[in-house]
Amino acid sequence: MSVPLLLVGGGRMGEALLGGMLAAGRPAQDFAVAEVSAARRAALTATYPGVQVVEQPVAAEGVVLATKPNDIAAVAAAAAQAGAQRLLSVAAGITAAAIEAAAPLPVIRAMPNTPALVGAGVTAIAPGAHAGEDDLAWAEAILGAVGVVVRVKEAQLDAVTGVSGSGPAYVFLIAEALSDAGVLAGLPRDLANTLAFQTLLGSAQLLIDGDSPANLRAAVTSPGGTTAAGLRELERGGVRSAFLEAVMAATERSRELGSR
Ligand SMILES: NC(=O)C1=CN([C@@H]2O[C@H](COP(=O)(O)OP(=O)(O)OC[C@H]3O[C@@H](n4cnc5c(N)ncnc54)[C@H](O)[C@@H]3O)[C@@H](O)[C@H]2O)C=CC1
Ligand SMILES: O=C(O)[C@@H]1CCC=N1
To answer: Where located (predicted)?
Structure first.
């Protein structure tokens, strides 16, 4: 009997998707994870009772490919061999055409991010040549359980990777730096962490509620006040252009991963 959804690769992204879908209420029996690392299999088995954790792909209606980009073609072929009917790849860079060449199945490409683990991910999806509306709807149902899903053209996925796939790492770097700065200014680490992390959460919520970043920033910035003094230093440090360069570098790296 085939399982509804097999995840191949139970690493950071595979676990974020699995954990997110379980937290959203999908039953553990809906899932199997194929993972080559014995240590990872042991960890997943202990954390997610009821999920079938195996070494090699088992028969599944749909398969999420969540191994490193270099392994995706071989893993797609193995999943097809094991009876998969359609594939959802989360690998950075690897094109739908490359996956279709390894496995003659409908392929959806997706770029999720790790906040999927707490149901607050954002994923962009794009169809391969043989994927139809039902395949896109299938991918949306999987990824919609762990956050917002948007549809894009496949050519946009490299830029999506640069912004939101890699984006959580940029935000964690900001969190670290803001907390470190609090410590430098004399606050205990616990307090600095609470202040920095809750500031990120609250600011994100204001943005999600719909006002523009520029308006929200202006509302914090009193004439001649503390924020204007701080922002001046951030601009002097080139923060804005550092973000432009970071996203362009990540986008370019995603393109490189796809062209090897
Ligand atoms: N980590 C992230 O924030 C994001 C990662 N991705 C993509 O997700 C994919 C996985 O990335 P991570 O989870 O970060 O890597 P990872 O290294 O944490 O996980 C990959 C897992 O796949 C396993 N694996 C390797 N070959 C296998 C095989 N043949 N069969 C079964 N399991 C196998 C490894 O043992 C490992 O546990 C990559 O293609 C990456 O581009 C996409 C969006 C965000
Ligand atoms: O760093 C990477 O290559 C992966 C893809 C997006 C986030 N992590």
So the answer is: Cytoplasm
Task: Using the mean position of ligand 1's atoms as its centre, give its distance from the Cα of residue 237 in Å.
Answer: 34
pLDDT for 72-103, tens place per residue? 999 999 999 999 999 999 999 999 999 999 99
- Alpha-carbon distance of 80 to 51, in angstroms, equals 21
Fold of domain 3-158: Rossmann fold (3.40.50)
Could you tell me which CATH number the domain at 167-258 has? 1.10.3730.10
**For residue 110, which ligand has an atom nearest its CA?**
1
Model pTM score: 0.94
Query: So where are the chain's domains?
Result: 3-158, 167-258
Q: Is the CB of 161 under 6 A from ligand 2?
A: yes
CA distances from 133 to 53, 96, 111 (A): 30, 16, 18
For ligand 1, say whether the CB of 99 is within 6 Å of any of its atoms: no
Which residue, judged by its Cα, is nearest atom 28 of ligand 1? 36
* CB distance 251 to ligand 2 below 6 Å: no
Report pLDDT digits (tens) over 183-223.
Answer: 999 999 999 999 999 999 999 999 999 999 999 999 999 99
